[in-house]
Amino acid sequence: MSMDDETDTHPVSETLNSRARSDVIEMGSGSGSVAAVDLKSGHRVAYDPRDLNDERETLTNPRLNLMEEILLLGLKDRQGYLSFWNENISYALRGCILIELALRDRIRVTKHAENKLSDPADRIIEVRSTKHTGEPLLDETLRLIKANSQASIVGWMDLLSGETWNVMKLNLQLKQVRERIAKGLVDKGVLRTEKRNFLLFDMPTHPLADPSQKDAVLRRLYALLTSRSQSVHPDEFYKEDPGNVGLRVTRTLCMVCCAYCANVLENTLTHLSSDMGEQVFRRVGSLLSTFGQWPMAPETPGGGIPRKAASRPTAAVGSGSSKKRKAQPIGVGDAELAQAMCQEMETNSNEAAFEVVAGVLNVFVRMDALV
């Protein structure tokens, strides 16, 4: 993905100061983090929970969004920067943004009949709600989708990445995405900001300040991919978050698939044997193919996601399934995942949002096929 964040290497503070030097200041803390603060509102620029002002939504969304989880998995803990050879992460992060907006009920697949005839990646999306999320990167994307003509899921991922031949659409590219996500993690106390010399230049880096947050992401990843039990236990996910986080299984599956496509999954598996690591990679590739279609996981009992009208769940989530299935050496089973995600979708009444998730995963399937 060649038209990655060309200017991601520059400090966010420089961009902010060039835009509104008199309105933004930088404030440091004893932990080494530096946050840009808007003097008019007193709120942090990259992330400030007061921008949302919705207690219910704050409690049902996790502390870290999907983009932050992926960046955190890719960052070197002590050095505080991504691998220079990672060419996939920027494009994958655009997909994470669309998934996050869908899971927060901000965008959905349109109800046009022709949408149902196309691949999930080619389906048109629209804004469902313009309510602010409190995350500037998400809100900026929401404004872009709302203000411009409708496009498909893969179309928006290309536009947000700057991968278009239409020069009139280049202004839709999101700039400095990785650095802005990192600054949001600094504001949340997960990372800190340092200056590091690379050859002749001083560059901002973001070493890990709160290891517990990355450990929590890793626990969810391992629970899904290396479990010896095929059953899924939603309550085991996001236990560290103070609120009642919704869509726990769906979010965890998305995180795993996005990490795979962003080429940061390998960083998390270094402690595993080579054979186990290969099994995990094959398993994630299988999950991507199974859930990167619509309906998702159609071969599972009940017809996948969404469930067929005549089907009913045969077992409670977490109890496993009594039906015979193909032998699966590690990880939660497809049937259990599909059943848990069906329950989450039906509880939240957001089928069109799940269709967006399937569309983004379908784009990732295409990417994987090209490698």
Task: Tell me the number of helical segments per DSSP (H or I, 4 or more residues long).
Answer: 12
- Identify the strand order in the major beta sheet: 1-2
DSSP strand count: 6
Rg (CA only): 20 Å
Biased composition (Polar residues): 10-19
Pfam families: GPP34
Keywords: Golgi apparatus, Lipid-binding, Membrane
Subcellular location: Golgi apparatus membrane
Could you walk me through the main structural features you see in this protein, from its secondary elements to its overall organization?
There is one protein chain. This protein has 371 residues and is mainly alpha-helical. It has 12 helices and 6 strands. It has helices spanning 12-20, 55-60, 66-74, 89-103, 136-147, 153-161, 177-187, 211-225, 248-261, 274-291, 334-348, 351-370, and strands spanning 24-28, 34-38, 107-109, 125-127, 194-198, 201-205. The strands form 3 sheets. The protein has a two-stranded antiparallel sheet. Strands 3-4 form a two-stranded antiparallel ribbon. Strand 1 (24-28) and strand 2 form a beta hairpin. The longest helix is centred in the C-terminal third of the chain and has 20 residues, at 351-370. The chain is globular.
